[in-house]
Design goal:
Shape: globular
Bound molecules: aspartic acid, magnesium ion
Strand order of the largest sheet: 3-6-2-1-9-11-12-10
Number of helices: 11
Strand content: 25-35%
CATH architecture of one domain: 3-Layer(aba) Sandwich
């Protein structure tokens, strides 16, 4: 069986962890599997490197920052191979570039265009274990690129897709995907399986276990992903294609996200082209706008609210204030103390009343809903940040996510 195993930073944080991981890989290899390993930088190495860059430069140059950050994964991949070689295994490390991971040219958040993987295949054919540095590649312009924070997951899934691996195992410091963040909800349960679509919604709304892009890749290429712990090695959560023969849980999980801010533009003229002007200007500044709500208009005017990542708020406000003046809106306000709670479940499609129930639960807790957005398998509400814990707990209990189905 061909297996891709990805180890996150906490899994290889120190020499003891690296040896424990090496032993696990060697075991899988000894059982007759072909094993390709993708590894992240040790512990908080990437954070340290980012800090170092900002210590020497106001605005680190994209190409050089990527060159620096990819060093983290070089360290862990070489150490992991040394440990395995001592255990008698032919282990060979490769940078993203050596492994033939070709990306576009966007430094800091490059997209993988192609995985050549020749040297990985050669190593496997020679009976060895290939260890690939996560989160990096080489651009079509021959520059070293990184895929964005948490990008090693994406490297692993992309390699698994390219090699046609049976499974992509993502080893981390939690034992799987839970029905809610266990730090907020102690009764949260580990899910045995979750569909690609559900995982995509969870990853996009604050579920921190898998990087969003890795789930997109897994879904596009139908790569089964097994999220599990490198501390206990117990079976974790399978992220797989939805099985139409299996009954779907109505709700699979509650996620929350405290990284957004809300912007409101008051008294916008209600005529064609106004929203287009505003959101075109934001898009041109590469501000990622998420939920958008336009109110019913009174006397030819309306309010428009939307959310942006809190880190982008200043940039967004500069754009919005300029356009607001041009379209003669009366004012721009913002709120950083908001959070988003979301319920996700494939069974929502066939069960009416889920939204009503969610709103009733929040009302019973005295939580005011400021914005709502939905997809066919997700409902999100923006609420005051101070209410997020009680909202998540109440929703988790009301939808009986603590009960084994
Ligand atoms: N080391 C990188 C980061 O910390 C990539 C990863 O961990 O997936 O973001
Ligand atoms: Mg990481």
């Amino acid at each position: 069986m061909l297996i891709v195993q990805k180890y996150g930073g906490s899994s290889v944080a120190d020499p003891d962890r690296i040896r424990a991981v090496a032993e696990h890989i060697v075991r899988a290899h000894a059982h007759g599997n072909q094993v390709v390993v993708v590894v992240s930088a040790m512990g908080k190495t990437t954070d340290d490197l980012v800090r170092l860059a900002h210590d020497v430069s106001q605005q680190p140059h994209g190409r050089e920052l990527d060159m620096l950050l990819t060093a983290g994964e070089r360290i862990s991949m070489a150490l992991l191979c040394m440990a395995m070689i001592d255990m008698g295994v032919h282990a060979v490390s490769f940078t993203g570039s050596q492994a033939g991971i070709v990306t576009d040219t966007v430094h800091g958040k490059a997209r993988i265009l192609e995985v050549k993987g020749d040297r990985i295949r050669e190593t496997l054919a020679a009976g060895g274990v290939a260890v690939v540095a996560g989160f990096q590649g080489i651009s079509t312009d021959k520059a070293i690129t990184t895929l964005g924070r948490g990008g090693s997951d994406t490297t692993a899934v992309a390699i698994a897709a390219a090699l046609g691996a049976e499974v992509c195992e993502i080893y981390t410091d939690v034992s799987g995907v839970f029905t809610a963040d266990p730090r907020l909800v102690p009764e949260a349960r580990k899910l045995a399986r979750v569909s690609f679509d559900e995982m995509l919604e969870m990853a996009a709304t604050g579920g921190r276990v898998l990087a969003l892009r890795s789930v997109e890749f897994a879904r596009s290429y139908n790569v089964p992903v097994h999220v599990r712990s490198s501390f206990t090695w117990e079976p974790g959560t399978w992220v797989v294609e939805e099985d139409p023969a299996m009954e779907q849980a109505v709700i699979s999980g509650v996620t929350h996200d405290e990284s957004d801010a809300k912007v409101t533009i008051a008294q916008v003229a209600d005529r064609p082209g106004v929203a287009a002007a505003m959101f075109r200007a934001l898009a041109d500044e590469a501000v990622n706008v998420d939920m958008i709500v336009q109110n019913v208009s009174t006397a030819g005017h309306t309010d428009i609210s939307f959310t942006v990542p809190r880190d982008d708020l200043r940039r967004a406000l500069t754009v919005v204030e300029k356009v607001a003046a041009e379209i003669e809106a009366t004012g721009v306000t913002y709120d950083e103390d908001v959070a988003r709670v979301t319920i996700v479940g494939a069974g929502m499609k066939t069960n009416p009343g889920i939204a009503a129930k969610m709103f009733e639960v929040l009302a019973a807790e005295g939580v005011n809903i400021e914005m709502i957005s939905t997809s066919s398998i997700r409902i999100s509400c923006v609420i005051p940040q101070s209410d997020v814990e009680k909202a998540v707990r109440a929703l988790h209990a009301a939808f009986e996510l603590d009960q084994v189905v």
